[in-house]
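Tutorial, part two.
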Amino acid sequence: MTQNDTRKNQIEEAIEVAAEAHHGQYRKGTHTPYITHPYAVGLILMEAGCTEIVIIAGILHDTVEDTDLTLDFIRERFGDAVANIVDGCSENKALRWRARKTEKIEALRTESPEVCTVTCADKLHNLRTIISEYDDIGDSVWDRFHGGVEDQAWYYRSILSAIADRDATLHRNGVHAKLTTHANGVTQHPPDDQKTPTPLDSTINPQIFRQFQQAVAYLFQGDTE
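Running the prediction step on this input gives:
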């Protein structure tokens, strides 16, 4: 057994950091510990074959926005790549609800594939939770959320549209990089010399995007924009 086998890996470190940071927080309108959400996001990313960096960022994605942890702490503990994804997923809570949501939605049109992938996993788990609770308590589930079903439908559809537009732009520009799935299930980008250079490196994880798309359609299919 090597020394590395006897020590916690970075994902385990992220789980512990997130658990401590979110201690005492609960999912909106429930008695469910909030930490179940970032854990679930991490699992969604892991099951879709995302890299360790993306999984760690998914586990930590709400820490800077909703806890006392700073981006500098994340950067020092987990590195620039993780910190940059967490930063890209964090909203400006100084703005009112609609303004900060609109700011983040517009940012997704030019964000990195990693930020978009974590965002999709985040929203996918939120929607799965709402769907499950809707089956139990019906329309009263919307009382927990800003603006009820109308504002929530606008929000999730807008995120979906912004990310879809981002990927469509890559396709139109002929810069869609073919992804390669290796035997270990990890999806990787091709070498730089095998794709057209672009500021947007590639499209997001297609499995997570498709699941997010299906959840939005299922939950909001009967509602107006």
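The longest strand covers residues 180-181. In part three we will examine how such features are distributed along the chain.
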